[in-house]
Amino acid sequence: MNSLMSKLLSRVVAPVVLTCGMLGMANAQGQNPIVIKFAHVVADSTPKGQGAQMFKKLAEERLPGKVKVEVYPNSSLYGDGQEMDALLLGDVHLLAPSLAKFEHYQKKIQLFDLPFIFDDMAAVDRFQNSPAGQGLLTSMKDKGITGLAYWHNGLKQLSANKELRTPKDARGLKFRVQASAVLEEQFKALRANPRKMAFAEMYQGLQTGVVNGAENPYSNIYSQKIHEVQKNITESNHGTLDYMVITNAKFWDGLPADVRTELEAILAEVTVEVNAQANALNEDAKQSILDAGTTKIITLTPEERAQWRDAVRPVWKKFEGDIGADLIEAAVQSNNP
Ligand code: LMR
Known about the structure:
Elements: H1 2-12, H2 20-28, E1 34-39, H3 47-62, E2 67-72, H4 83-89, E3 94-95, H5 121-129, H6 131-137, E4 145-155, E5 157-160, E6 174-177, H7 181-189, E7 193-196, H8 202-208, E8 213-216, H9 218-223, E9 232-235, E10 240-248, H10 249-253, H11 257-292, E11 296-299, H12 302-312, H13 314-323, H14 325-333
Parallel strand pairs: 1-2, 1-3, 6-7, 9-11
Antiparallel strand pairs: 3-10, 4-10, 5-8, 5-9
Helix pairs in contact: 3-11
């Protein structure tokens, strides 16, 4: 995985490196670089981890001495449950929480958690780039949050020690969920027990049996070693795990205009690369899981997959009021290019 992204980095990154000399010069002129802290909860090897690194590299190369980007992966600065408050307090400047983690700020973003709403990542992409999708980026201004971009991870797969082939196999099992009411309802619809749990606690939760199963894209499964504590993965592709790159609106608006414009251009470039490579990183992670030999990957027949879809489809209706029927329709339409 790393080599794939290294290749990518060497392709997009200009061969100019930030030298100590440049930094020294800037300091001699009394210009302290603006420090931008970018915190996230996943590993460097994942699409989001790679995107954060790429952003750092390009920003420091193209704004030498003006900007210093500090990336904190793996919940090392702030984890789930703290990072949003830290952003609003100005203690961290960039985050990319999964779209499941916005319900207290913008309920319409719950759309992305509705099970089986997008047929594939191309549909997710089309929706995110549509006026409706782009509108969500700016919909939290009143809360002090500016959305800058959507980054892909990918589609989620179910995992457990038990084989999950049809919805009844999930009955009674405890599943770790992100802090999302939609995801809680999804598992309740399966007559399973959802347990909200921070991402950093998932491995231990599964290892100790506090929870029995989870839902993650392959890149998160592999990088968190979830496969070591789950004997089976069902390739359900039942939902999306994507991100919104967000900043503190006051911080961003307060940046010097030339710096902000350059950072936005860099972010746009990084977004294209992250979204183009996310699928390959997940496929690579899937292969690594197979190579590890710890876990069986179960492929569903179209009929089996339809059973899962039918079991969780009632969840859409429950959230239609919060999300809006029009937005749900726009998302569904993105399945038909
Ligand atoms: C999760 O909590 O499962 C994800 O949001 C983690 C991530 O950022 O990919």
